[in-house]
Design brief:
single chain, 11 helices, mainly alpha
Length: about 230
């Protein structure tokens, strides 16, 4: 399991909880705001719940566990079913990554209340070194902060079918939006190419990692108070 190389069992459990929580809140936010914007499908399909089993994509989650990347969940929302197709869909799509940011902020605050030093916190979160309930909670809360920061940053990428692509589409004027839609498949190929390059582990070619890692670590460290 490439994602979990050199991780302790406790760290693996913390990562899985963090990702499952982030995915569930992300998809729930899409569905709930879509519901508020007039789309009847989320309620009809029972998606207005925080039950992760309703939102999870089993194959995509298994891919994440095995190779570190996968489509974790899905939300059956559509612009044409909303009262205001443009702005309603924008709100529903943006709600996903923003919910991850909010979750990271909440657990970043909780993390700061734990009676652990910055040194203990860093070792617990990034090295899996725990010895009591406080450092075990630091590990869990820190992983929730980190992975939700990553989900927030990743889902802002303007490539199809990621949320960022749909956010750009909704913000563009009609003529530019039409051109943007015409090139959706091209951006999808770009995303797939970037993912493949990241697996090659060739120095300087992991462009996706460079785009995502620095903002993710900067945001996560700020929220954890490790700057």
């Amino acid at each position: 399991m490439l994602l979990f190389n050199d991780l302790s069992v406790q760290s693996i459990i913390a990562v899985l909880i963090a990702v499952l929580l982030g995915m569930t809140v992300h998809e729930f936010a899409h569905n709930y705001i879509g519901h508020l914007m007039g789309d009847p499908v989320p309620a009809r399909e029972g998606r207005l719940t925080l039950n992760p089993m309703v939102h999870i994509n089993p194959l995509g989650f298994l891919m994440f566990v095995l190779i570190g990347f996968g489509i974790l969940g899905s939300a059956p929302i559509a612009a044409h079913r909303m009262r205001n197709p443009r702005w309603g869909f924008l709100a529903a799509v943006a709600a996903g990554p923003l919910s991850n940011l909010l979750l990271a902020i909440i657990f970043g605050i909780l993390l700061r209340f734990l009676p652990v030093s910055q040194f203990e916190m860093f070792n617990a979160i990034f090295r899996g070194q725990t010895g009591n309930i406080e450092t075990s909670l630091a590990l869990l809360f820190g992983q929730i902060v980190f992975w939700n920061c990553l989900l927030f940053i990743f889902n802002l990428l303007p490539v199809f079918p990621i949320d960022g692509w749909h956010i750009v589409l909704a913000l563009l004027p009609p003529d530019l939006a039409y051109t943007w839609q015409k090139h959706a498949q091209t951006t999808n190929y770009i995303l797939l190419g970037l993912i493949l390059l990241s697996f090659l582990r060739i120095p300087g070619l992991n462009i996706l990692g460079m785009i995502i890692s620095q903002p993710t670590y900067s945001l996560a460290f700020t929220l954890m108070g490790l700057n």
